[in-house]
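Bit of a strange request maybe. I'm writing a small parser for structure token strings and I need a real example to test against, not something I typed by hand. Could someone generate the tokens for this chain?
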Amino acid sequence: MQPGTFSRQDIAVSQEESPGFSRGEDVNQIPLFVDHQKTPVTDKIALLTERFTKHASNRPTKRDSLMTYIHSIFAKQLPDSEVQKLVRDMEQRKLIVIGADNKVVYHV
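Reply from user aminoacidic:
Good idea to test on real output. This should exercise your parser:
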């Protein structure tokens, strides 16, 4: 293995040593290892809604920054078309409104 690369076991061990890690947690639930393309849309929207609620002061304010934010939440595993679909779904569910000036208003 090259310097600076980590295996699942390395990450699991380092997480076990951190105070916030519980031995009962599954290493496959670490966001880096989750295959977000297989996650249902409703679960993705639920995760985003939870993040928007918990971090209200750090919500993206423009459409482009929202797209970048969603990419980062899902470890850049989703294609642009799916990220755009998530934004449209959130608009249809009235969780967000994107104005003519591309500003995002949240209703979560």
